[in-house]
Design goal:
The chain has 205 residues and is of the alpha+beta class. The protein has two helices and 16 strands. 24% of the residues are buried.
């Protein structure tokens, strides 16, 4: 009897040791897996922002833009591409205005906001007038840019928050004016190197 009791005790102790051993074993092999800094990057398509010059309203168009002149004053003709207008010139034989009309068209899918207008000073040349007189008369030349009904006469940041929605346009009028204060002994040509309109997807602050 004592032998059987001792045997049972040994078996019970052995089972307890085995169970404890299994518990310790499971604890030793348990671990946690952590995913850190999980994120997704969504890249925009720059093609969604596409603001261009146009010769026509409501669409895109490139080609020649012929100036209109007041009282038969001189002439002017420019070449319009999608993002630039070249040869924006005005030839004067007396005081008056020369006006170029075209459009800014939003061909993208994002609303565009005008942020800055840059207007270079005119440079004047002549093939038959005295250069000193031409230089003095060049000071009489002023440039006004009207975009969507707003006038700009100097380089400036734009505070207007009105956006240009997709598939809409804004009329642009560039007026080159000669006050005629200084007389010149021949024709002279005023050339505006750059008039830049900067558009953004964000409105003015």
């Amino acid at each position: 009897m004592k032998h059987n009791r001792r045997t049972k005790v040994i078996v019970i102790v052995a089972l307890l040791v085995a169970v404890l051993g299994l518990s310790v074993g499971f604890a030793a092999y348990s671990k946690s897996l952590t995913i850190q800094n999980a994120q997704a990057t969504v890249k925009g398509n720059s093609g969604n922002f596409n603001v261009v010059f146009s010769t026509v309203s409501g669409s895109t168009g490139t080609g020649q833009v012929t100036a209109t002149a007041s009282s038969g004053v001189g002439s002017g003709s420019a070449t319009l591409a999608a993002t630039a207008i070249t040869n924006l010139v005005a030839t004067f034989n007396k005081a008056g205005d020369i006006v170029y009309d075209f459009y800014v068209y939003n061909a993208g899918t994002l609303t565009a906001y005008l942020k800055n207008v840059t207007i270079d000073k005119p440079a004047c040349t002549s093939s038959n007038a005295t250069q000193a007189l031409v230089t003095a008369a060049c000071a009489d030349i002023t440039v006004k840019v009207n975009v969507g009904g707003q006038d700009y006469t100097a380089t400036k940041a734009v505070t207007d928050k009105t956006g240009l929605a997709k598939t809409t346009d804004a009329a642009v009028k560039v007026t080159i004016k000669n006050s005629g204060t200084h007389a010149v002994d021949g024709d002279f040509t005023a050339k505006i190197a750059n008039i830049k309109l900067d558009y953004s997807t964000q409105p003015a602050a």
